[in-house]
């Protein structure tokens, strides 16, 4: 995209180590430091004093952001970002949004944001270069095909073996295609999500693989002559986390905020409002 229904695939200690980006540090120490008393706006070391700077890509698509405007609080990730900010003691007026392309977000080096929300999957390779919070969502993958394509009639992953599939470079969709569909020819890889969609529209590929919520948006608004063939689970799960600069002093507190939102029911409520349709796609096995 789980989510509020997060089912941890790793032992708790390991998950906390990845989320907090703490390397060899003791994860119990990290969670002890993050508390309602320590994770307050007046104590956090942010990019801009008194502000919380949040990044995402542009354009910003539904159901994660509405009207290509992250600042309006509408859409799943916009709502999650503002909920994290509120949990940490920031008013909406104290949240600043900046643009960060997806492919550069997890590159090593300094960041000009406090955290990034952009459907970014937590992977061990990325966690070597950046920090991740506790996951706020877990997404399945979806196959989208033009209605007149043979791929549209697939009822299993095996039926897609001879399909020319398009995916975005650096995405977990690429890994999911290779591991689960195992096509006879390599997937065609494109630089941006827009390029992936264009390739489908122009018939360069028979189908594309994206996360399930994106698939619903694409078939409803951008490629209306295409349908969701079905959904399947990414190997090991596909958990999304807030991305932070490596060894960020904010990582433990952002994770703390997400845990609090989850335990109080606020995160499940946000997911239910913006992501409820994802269960409607058929399952491919």
Question: What's the level 1 CATH class of the largest domain?
Answer: Alpha Beta
Structurally, how many domains make up the residues?
2
How many DSSP-defined strands?
A: 10
Low-confidence stretches: 1-32
Number of helices: 10
Largest sheet: 5 strands, mixed
Oligomer: single chain
Radius of gyration: 19 Å
Order of helices and strands: HHEHEHEHEEEHEHEHEEHH
Which CATH architecture of the largest domain would you pick? 3-Layer(aba) Sandwich
* CATH third-level topology of the largest domain: D-Maltodextrin-Binding Protein, domain 2
Average pLDDT metric: 87
Give the helix proportion (percent range): 25-40%
Distance between the termini: 19 Å
> Strand order of the main beta sheet, please?
7-6-8-5-9
Which structural class best describes the helix and strand composition? alpha/beta
Shape: elongated
Quick rundown:
By secondary structure, the chain is an alpha/beta fold.
Explain this structure.
This protein has a 5-stranded mixed β-sheet with strand order 7-6-8-5-9, sandwiched between helices. The chain has 10 helices and 10 strands. The longest helix is centred in the last third of the chain and has 13 residues, at 251-263. It has helices at 12-20, 27-33, 76-87, 102-105, 124-127, 172-181, 193-201, 212-222, 251-263, 266-275; strands at residues 52-56, 95-99, 115-116, 130-138, 141-146, 165-168, 188-190, 207-211, 226-232, 239-245. Helix 1 (12-20) packs across helix 2 (27-33), helix 3 (76-87) packs across helix 9 (251-263) and helix 3 packs antiparallel against helix 10 (266-275). 31% of the residues lie in helices and 19% in strands.
């Amino acid at each position: 995209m789980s989510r509020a229904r997060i089912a941890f695939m790793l032992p708790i200690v390991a998950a906390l180590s990845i989320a907090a980006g703490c390397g060899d540090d003791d994860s119990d120490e990290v969670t002890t430091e993050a508390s309602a008393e320590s994770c307050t706006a007046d104590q956090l070391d942010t990019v801009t004093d008194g502000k919380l700077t949040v990044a995402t890509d542009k354009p910003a698509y539904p159901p994660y952001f509405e009207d290509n405007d992250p600042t309006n609080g509408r859409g799943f990730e916009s709502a999650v970002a503002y909920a994290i900010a509120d949990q940490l003691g920031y008013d909406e007026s104290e949240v600043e949004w900046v643009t960060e392309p997806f492919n550069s977000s997890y590159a090593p080096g300094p960041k000009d944001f406090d955290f990034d929300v952009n459907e970014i999957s937590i992977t061990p390779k990325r966690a070597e270069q950046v920090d991740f919070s506790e996951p706020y969502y877990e997404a399945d993958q979806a196959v989208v095909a033009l209605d007149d394509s043979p791929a549209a009639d697939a009822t299993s992953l095996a039926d897609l073996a001879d399909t020319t599939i398009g995916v975005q470079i650096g995405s977990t969709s690429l890994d999911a295609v290779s591991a689960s569909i195992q096509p006879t020819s390599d997937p065609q890889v494109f630089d941006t999500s827009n390029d992936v969609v264009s390739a489908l529209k122009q018939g360069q590929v028979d189908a594309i693989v994206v996360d399930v919520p994106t698939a619903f948006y694409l078939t409803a608004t951008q490629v209306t002559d295409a349908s969701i063939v079905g959904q399947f689970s990414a190997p090991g799960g596909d958990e999304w986390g807030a991305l932070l600069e490596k060894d960020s002093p904010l990582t433990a507190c952002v994770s703390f905020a997400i845990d609090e939102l989850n335990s109080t029911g606020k995160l499940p409520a946000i997911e239910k409002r913006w992501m409820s349709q994802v269960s409607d796609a058929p399952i491919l096995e």
